[in-house]
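User: Sorry, folds how?
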Amino acid sequence: QVQLVESGGGLVQPGGSVRLSCLASGFAVEYYSIGWFRQAPGKEREAVSCISNIHGRTEYVESVKGRFTVSGDKAKNTVYLQMNDLKPEDPGPYYCATRLTTACPIEPYHWGQGTQVTVSS
């Protein structure tokens, strides 16, 4: 059974950093793509980043390029999203998702429950 569990969110000051984790079970992240998504208040859910470990490929939405870094740890079967220089437009629940495909971007099918990131001084 595919499961994704996010953690690591919280309250962060503008300009601060946080690292989100996505612990996967039921499949190996080294073989399948994982996407990170967020939903800002009043906005539609958007894709933030994607990683395909098997292809050595990462993708980012333009607004986070240079600030966010996605990575994977096959030993822990976990994908991370390092978020630096957080801005007021970055908050919202963050979700990881997969469709058990190898390419990026993904059309998500399996979702985690989300972890909240709040950016405030």
Summary: The longest strand covers residues 18-25. The mean pLDDT is 95.
